[in-house]
Amino acid sequence: MGGVVVALGGNALQRPGGPGDWAEARRHMRSTVSALVEVVRDGKPLALTHGNGPQVGQLLRQNEIAEREVPPRPLDVLGAESEGQIGYLIAQELEAALHHARLPRSVVVLISRMEVSARDSAFRNPTKPVGRFYTDVEARLLRKRTGWTLSYDSARGGWRRVVPSPVPVRWVESEAVRQLLGSSWGERIVPVIAGGGGIPVVRHRGGGWEGVEAVVDKDRSAAVVAEALGAETLAIVTDVPGVAVGFGKSWERWLGEVSAAELAGHAAKGEFAAGSMGPKVESILRFLDHGGRRGVVTDIPSLRRALRGEAGTRVTRASR
Ligand code: ADP
Ligand code: MG
Hints:
By secondary structure, the protein is of the alpha/beta class.
């Protein structure tokens, strides 16, 4: 089908250090969608996915504060809530901006599930921090009361709940959404898919799916979605202009056009931090390995130019 899948990072959704209210979220989204309008104007079918870290953090906190009156919801349900609220925000702001630009499209938000394997080793080794920081005393109580795994963050001096981050095996709704989009993807519909990485589900013995208390990495899910849609380009939008080698060191070098083989070489040398740039690079390499044409890492201001090959890091499939 061609087209571009754009994965929006936490920063494109919420300004760190802001008041965190809805009015600000709308203002911030308005600046993000203006870059997306340019992508549509350039004539590319567009599909979106997005992160949800700060939003799930807020939902967990709401649960915590309200727990005496409203029973807390499990993490898979909070994933669905975050897909709903962020998707709604994107739909409102992006549709309005596209209408204003005389590019009428329907932004369709799809609550998405990602199949993960119950045997994924991540379930024995939870690593993904969620929610707020806890003191020693709180951590001890929570461990006893909830059975959570908590892990100490020495850099920031506190305990955090960690949950499994299994790899996505399959996007449950992919076939149905492909049918929905048909040949009109790009002409009429901008789908928002697998927000927050999608809701992790495992296959139920009796058929159907069971939600699990885990988080799927949104960059990994973006690659699964891009592959399922037959997209040409996977663009991962974050808060840095691209991928660097020697990141933060005096010999730091930002990559422009780079082959998959070269990028894989840098990854093998440990250039990309686990949990931030690591999964982005891994996901782009996977996408290119499974038939994708191009991977892009960039920030919102450079997105349009990056897609035109003039900015950001552009990864091309080439003989390994
Ligand atoms: P997002 O919310 O967009 O997924 P992340 O914080 O997960 O954002 O990933 C982006 C961050 O990755 C950057 O802010 C940067 O600090 C970090 N990073 C780690 N290694 C690198 C690298 N080699 N090149 C560029 N950024 C890197
Ligand atoms: Mg991230």
